[in-house]
Every structure is written in C-alpha cells, then in structure tokens.
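<goal> How does this chain fold?
<sample>
Here is the protein in question

***
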Amino acid sequence: MTVVASPRRWHLHAGLLSLWFAVSFGVVFFAYDLQQEVLSWPVGFWFAAQGAVLAFIAIVVVFAWRTNQRTTEILDFDLVAYRNYERSLHRRFGLYLMLVVAFIVTLAVAEEMGLPKPWVAGIFLSTSLVLYAVIGVVVRTADANEYYVAGRRVPAIYNGMASAADWMSAASFISMAGGLYLQGFSGAGGQPGGLAYVLGWTGGFCLVALLVAPYLRRMNLYTVPDYFAVRFGGRWPRLLAALAAVLCSFTYVVAQIYGVGLITSRLTGVHFEIGVLLGLGGVLVCSFLGGMRAVTWTQVAQYVIIILAFLIPVSWLSYKQTGNPLAPLAYGQQLGKIAELERQFIASPVEQEVTGIYAQRALELEKKLQNVEEALQQERQDLRRQLRAAEVQKGGEAHAQVLRRELAALPKDATAARERWALALSDNLERAKPLGGMPPHTQPFTGKPDGTAQEQADFGSSRANFLALIFCLMVGTAGLPHLLTRYYTTPSVADARRSVAWSLVFIALLYLSAPALAVLVKYEVMAHLVGQPMDALPMWMSQWARDPSLLSAVDVNGDQILQFAELKIGPDLVMLASPEIGGLPYVVSVLVAAGGLAAALSTADGLLLTIGNALAHDVYFEGNSNKAQAMRRVMWSKFALLVVALVAAYAAAQRPAGILSLVAASFSLAGAAFVPAMVLGIFWPGMTRFGAVGGMLTGLGVTLYYMAINLPIVRQSLGLQGSGLWWGIQPVSAGVFGVSAGFAACLLCTWLGRPDPVPERDLAPHLG
C-alpha cells in the first residue's frame, strides 16, 4: 500500500482540535452558569450528556471525509474482489441480526407459554457462549498476519462495530448508568464522576482519529510497541512500551473478568468464582484459537447483543414514563420532576429522621474507634449477657438465635473490628447527608462559586477534578494499546479513519442512552418505590437484596414505610435490574445479563490478546520476522495469553474495588505511558530515543507514585499525615500529572541528549 498525500496542511487539524478543546473543556467549565432550561433541558446538562457527544462525532466524521478526499492510496489488493467480500459480509451480518431477534422473540414466547426461568437463562447463556466458541473455532489460525491483525481486511463499518464492542466494557455497560444514578452530573464530594465518563470516553476518539490511528496504520505494524521499535530503534523503547501495555491492560482486564463473574453468577446461580471460570472459557476459546481474526468477528457478534440489551430496557422505560421510546430525546422532562422530588425529600421530616439515625450511628462508631479493644470486649459481653437472659426466658429461643448470630458475626480481633467499623462509619456518615449523600442530579459541581469560603473551595475542587478526569479519560483513550491495535486491521489508512468514525457512532448509541437510563430509573425509584409499605415492595427487590452491595432497603426508623434515605442501590444494579424495574419479561433480564457478559468478554478478549502479544512478540522475540519465528511468536503469544488469563482470573476472584475505578486507573496509566512519546514521535521528526525512554519512564513513574502515595494503607504504613493530594486532584486522575510530566521529559531529554540517526522510515504525518 502506497500513500500519496497532498502537501501538509495543518489548518484542518488545528481547527478541529480547537473545536474539540472548546467542546470538551470550555463549555463544561461554565456549566454552572448554563442552568437555564430550554425545552425542559438544563442547557449545561444537555450539552455534557448529549451535545458534546454529537460534536465529537461531527469532528471525527469531518476529519475522515476531508482527509480522505485529498489523500490518494495505491492499494495492494484487488478492489473488485474486496467489494464482493464486503457484500458477502453484509448478507451474513443481516442474516445474523435476524436470527438474534428471532431467537429473543422465540424465548419470550416460550417463557409466556411456561418455560421455567432457569431454562430461559441456561438456554440464552449457553447459546451465546457456544456462538462465540464456534466463531473462535471456525476462524482459528496460526498465521501471524491473521493472528495479530486479522489479515488487514476488516471493512471499516465492521471494524468500527468490533472496536465499539471492545470499548464498551463491563464499566460502560454495567456500571456507567449506575454511576450516573449515584453521582448525577459531576460526582459527589471530592470524588469526580458522572458525565465526566460520557465526555471522556467519547471525546478521546477525536484524539485517536486526529493524532494516532491513521499514522500507526500507515506503518503496517502488529502491536503498539512495534511503533516504538520502528520509530526510535534500540531495545528500551519497545521493552518499556510492552511492559506498560501489560500493566495498563492487566488492570483493565481484571475489571472485565470481575464483571464476567458477577454476571455469570447472577445469570446461572453458580458461585462467583465458578462464574469467572465459565466466562473465562468463552474468552480463551476465541482469543487463544484465532487471535485478532477470531476476536474481531466475535466482537461484531457481541456488539449486536450489547446494544439490543441496552436499548430495549431504556426504550421501554422511556415509553412507559413519557410515551416516547426514544429515550435520549424524551428523558429531559423527567429531570424537572426529579429535581422537585429531591427538594421534597430534603425538606421531609421523615427523611430527616432517618438521616438523623444514621448520624447517631456514626457518632457511636466514632466512640468505638477511639478504643477499639475495649469497645469490642464490651459489645461481646453485652451480647453474651443478653443471650443468657434469653435462654432462661420462656419462649425466648427465637431471640436467642438472633443473638447467637450477632455474636458469631462480631469481629474476631481489634484489627478486624477497626477495619469493619471504619467502613461502617464512612457509610453512615455518607447516608446521614441529605439524599443519602447523593448530589442533586443536574447540579454541575459541588459547592457554589458565590457562596461561603468553604462552598467556593468545594466548587473549585469539584470542577477541577471533573475536568482532570475528562482529560485523563480522553488522553488514556488515545493510548490504550488494545484499542489502537483494532485500527491495524483495516485494509487502508482511509478505512482506519472511517473506522474511528464508525466506532464513535456505534459507541454513542449506548453512551447517549446511559444518562437517560440513570434518570429514568431514578424517577421510577423516587416516584414509585419511595413511600411504599415495606411489605408491599416488588419481588425483584428481595431477590437483589441478597447481595447488600447491590441493594439494601432497611426500615431504619421502624415506620414500615420505605424512605429514600433507607434505600441504598449499588452502581452495578441499575442496568442489570432495569428490565425488572420496568416490568419487562424475564427473557429481557437474561438479555441484559448476556449483554453485560458480552461487553466484559469482548473487552477481555482484546486485552488478553494485547498482553499476550506484548509479552511474546515484543518482549521475548523482539520482532524477528522470518516465517519460522513468526509461527513461534504466535505459539508463545497463545501460551502467554493463557497464563495471564489465569492470573487475571485469580485477581478478579479476590473481588477488587468497583469496576469504574479500576478502569479509570488504567486510562491514567495508558495516557501517561504512551501518549507523550507516541504523539511527539509522530509529529516531531526531531524526537529521539532518549526522549521517548525518558518520557515513558517519567510519565508512568509520576502516575504510579501519585496513585500509590494516596492509598490509605501506604500513608498509614509510612506514617504520613494529612492529604497527599496535589492541588486537590483525586488519585483517579493521576494521569493529569503523568501526561504533563511525560511531555516535559520527552522535550527535555530530546534537547539535552544526542540526536538519533535519521530513521529509514520518516514517520512524520505526510497525510496532513
């Protein structure tokens, strides 16, 4: 493939990047001042939830269209044969789509006719896993070009669909709507979140399209570390890039396998650990046998399941509440109703009574934590005294049983008691706040710019953290190896540009609907659950309440009425329980679980493939390219993939922190490790090997240090007092410092070091 480009013209890049910056940061910076309502939408909220995403799509589409118009490629394949191949794919995809819809309808009819729910779940789960396995077996390969980059013949629209499935991980499918439900616009307290994820995870594709993907595709590489080897030469740039790819991808894949275990266990009723292994088998069959070729077509199949699973419940809830199934267009009218309900709950004496009880519990826990050993001993003695009294009373056996359970559940020692009570204290303090610690849904930032000194400080910190998180997610998107490798699989550079545009379109279908789902579920909870008698709550609540981390509804004040402050919903519940909340058939609940499973599996496929390839192709073999070595690289890539999958499954079985926080950390790591050296290497011919190594080490080192030094266990073990935050930025956004330090180190090390010999392949972007 030869590329013939017009002379460099940077005005398109400059104009679109300026628009991207204004949309990403400029308008959001003034979101507090944009609360005027237009057609029932607060302007700032609409722009962050929808307007910015539409602008990002326009930026990527315009860039691909204009650049492809003025760039000519001489292709090294038969274009007529390729067009016939595309038409064949369209027919197969259309048939697959019809079969999926027919399968869902058939199961729904069977359920209506009396097919037991366990059978519905088992059939759906087994059929989807068998489908993915069959694709892996049918397209298995040992050819290096097929294994690493799917033969570079995936059409742009299907590569965009596969990229979307690869991208829409368990965090996007399972946790995003729940995070928006709990965090509203911008997060609560000092923890950023909310619409920052929507903005960050879509705006990053502008950077992928304008700065990275087409230029990497032009080089005909296999992995992202390949770029560092070809551009800078020597061993260290490639080795550091490979290790960084393993680090950020492993953090990401643990979150996906955790999601696999969560969904599989919910769908089948098996233990969480067994669910992890079942889902992992589906991952390994695809990525192990067929590499990128199998993963690509599996992800296309999975995208259909993912998007149907998300859009059906949100469309039904929207139709049920507003009469309009187009949720992104209709849910604005619910925002005003939620705001009114929030005001009522804050002023309600009954709600205040409940929050007062939580505040009292927090005070009691604070007293216990002052002398843990004594408090634990006293509590144990009190329970034993009550137990002895109950045992001698006539008819007191039931009460005695309760006391025995409470006694057995007490912490075994002071260390365990301190840990448990500290967590309980944090939870009670949060629930003692109005709305259970949840911010008003459309409030842009915590605090007020014109309030008290504390409110002004809270406002500045909240806005700064929100913008920092957006920055890390966007830059991290441009550096994630498993995403960038997807654009190696297109037949041409022009198709790579088009593929990024298709990716964002397919992703936007879900990302525009996630804020809608959060709002619709919140209105359903506030308007139809709160205020109901505790013994009249819907059946789905008792089923999900078996896991207190997902749902807890406790009658704190004893009035037998559910108050909003008495209800605690975990972020993973909002999407998984949305069909039951909307009253849809059980088959839709199974479809949602299968969609979440597909989202986790598709991303895990790409991540495990990236890790295995980095270890075998980039670390061990260092890119030797003769045929025998290529086959050995594929073999060792498969072996490395298997080992990493087992290690990641073990880590996921330990039930780490929430999916969103794990994923967000990997974005900071990817952005700091790759983006400074990669982007400067593409656009600055003077960038040197010394600069690349210095930039990667500095960016990654600063990010890891900032994350580690702010871990409570690290600060406690080192005896550090106070906050370790720089300018109040939370550790989840550590990449804002790592990326900045990485760019500075790249420039400084390049200027201070000796220039490299002019590389044989000039990688400056002649495509303009």
In short: The chain is about 75% helix and 5% strand. Residues 346-444 form one domain. The longest strand covers residues 2-5.
